[in-house]
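User: Predict the complex.
Assistant: Input components as received:
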Amino acid sequence: MLAALCLLLSTHLPLLSPHGEKAVVLLFVRTDCPVSNRYAPDLQRLYENFARQGIDFRLVYPEHGLTAAAMQRHRGEYGYTIPAVLDAGHQYVARARAKVTPEAAVFVHGELIYRGRIDDRSVDIGKERLAATQHDLEEVLATVAAGRTPERRQTEAVGCAIENLP
Amino acid sequence: MRWVALSLVTLLTASDPVTFNKQIAPLIFQNCSSCHRPGETAPFSLLTYEDVRKRAAQIVAVTQRRYMPPWSPEPGYGDFASERRLTDAQLGLLAEWVKAGCPQGDRADLPPQPHFTVGWQLGPPDLIVKLAKPYQLAASGSDVFRNFVIPVDVKNTKYVRAVEVRPGNKRIVHHANILIDRRQSMRRLDGEDGQPGFAGMLDSAETHSDTFAPDSHFLFWKPGTVLEANPDDLSWQLDPGTDLILNMHLRPSGKLEAIQPEVGFYFSGQPPTKHPMLVQLEHDGALDIPPGARDFEVTDHVTLPVEVDVLAIYPHAHYLGKQVEAWATLPSGARTWLIKINNWDINWQAVYTYRMPVRLPRGTTIGMRISYDNSASNPRNPSNPPKRVLTGPRSEDEMGHVWLQVLPPKESAEDPRVTLQEALMRRRLEKYPGDFAAQCNLGELSLMRGQLRQAVSEFEQAVQAGPKSATAHSGLGTGLLAEGHYDQAISELKEALRLDPRHLNARLNLARALGAQGDLHSAAAELDGVLRQKPDNAEAQSGLGFVYFLQRRYDQALLHYQEAARLRPEDADVQTYLGTLLAMRGDLPGAIKAFEESLKLNPHNDVVRAYLARARAALAAKAKRY
């Protein structure tokens, strides 16, 4: 049932918030990426804070060849309750122009207003701050949740490459 | 001609496209697969074409940045065993392959997958110890440095040639340092926050500092290390009552994790014949980094009074560490690099073993320089905004240590380790005038050399620096005892025991001093005290035997000498007394055996030779009579 729903989502790319949500947030993750895995508690916390404030979340797995069962297993293992999408054809990747995991893309009325890092904890591959000093995604979401439209922004995300389709 | 050469190059390049099976697989198998395989530390396997193709862009990104394979030392600054570093040409091959669309190539070109040992790398260990209760690591938060206290249950002394750590959950363990706590001094910290172990970063050999002549072996584990056992002559001693401190660097993975590490010991049948030493370069006293400093430096140097072979090196700094350098300036003035790390990263700290030991002649000066970035532009800075940082074990403190494991070739009359230790302690006094540990160590060295006046003077200074230290008072008392100043010795030894009633050496020496004054009764009481604390103390057993011998309580004397001989069969004097006591009670075969044993251990004792001759004659006479 869930897998079928995921497939449905991945083919239709409903980034227009059909239920009147304020925004749609795509969170790109890979099952085998230690960087995005380490962000799991942070991503889940953002979901829990903002989903009830009218923001629609999708956890996007852009891995070619990943099965829906493996995706759900990973989701359970890391304690995600964010609805997941298997983006085997990279429709979401193309739409958000995402390059790495973890990376976030925020759409308001179908328009991309933020793409980039979750926060500034990762500085380079293997180079991390002990704690983030800038919470980019959270700031964007807070602005949207407050009913305002944030300035359009992009930041450089650090993580594992989203591989090209074979 | 040039045209021909050029077209030949083009032809070769064209006919030799980069494929997985031909060029990439061997490179991956050799440099990546030992960690990137099931059950190992890396987050995914790299064993097949599909494994590699799925992460091809990622592999190019991390290898170009030299984040993978992890190898910190700069090439050309020390030749290390198990170096794992891709050449520029190999990096080029990877990039070219990905650019070409990751072609798989001809199946016939594919080398067989490497063979890896599953489980204990050196086979079943002789002893396995395990953390009693698992430790829970939170899903998120900063890295955790945890010290697990694991008692090692051995009944008698063992000699260890290898130690293997099985963390239980390799994905969260970045590296582990094993420390040997012979005095069980860390137990009191265990579990104080409700979880197994205690927090903090201990660097190698920290707990060794209070014992002279530690075994000086780096016991370091990081994922992917190819484990090699030491040769039997380089084993180290593991005594009963030792605690293992497993200092682990743990990284939250994004989900709740538990670990319950196991440590396997591989024993050698014989005690070591080669005794390495650790030389520590440091200047913790100068480690006072102002906030905002981008290039704060700590340096140290020491001149070697003996020739040494450097076997391995272990640099240690925390999150502010920037560049680490160590070198040797030979007596000729020439410089030999020992290590250089341009981008210090605590996450990849390691012990580096030289491919061939580095021979450094007497008179060589070893130097080190470590720089630190305590500015806000250092992303790893634990404090935001930066603050003043001093030396300490917490991750927000700093350290600046370079440890060298050296082996002095044994040639001179004196143990070269003693000479070297003295030089290290004298250097320590230069850095820290009046330093307690240095004074104590120098006193010990003088005692070992029989330089009693000097020992007494050094221990007097140690007592001044640390008036509450039982060790200092005990050392002073021991020196005074050896000089024959019994009254003063007794007062110092009693002071040591007042400060630490469990100080065995102080009590043993107090017994000796009392005995020397003729107070056999009090001496026996002190020796009884030692045996109550440690029944298998051979010196107390033989000491008590001697007191009873003097008191003519021969049966009791015999019992204690028998016990002493069992505990320390290599003591010639014990065998001599044992033989004498056995002869007195008429056990001539037993006496002969003991005298023979004594002569085997010390053939140049004519008195024992005469005793043996008399015992043999008596036995022969007895045989004739019947």
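Chain B touches chain A at residues 43-44, 50, 53-58, 61-62, 65, 67, 102, 139-140, 142-143, 251-255, 319, 345, 347, 379-382, 384, 395 (CB under 8 Å).
Let me know if you want any component modeled separately.
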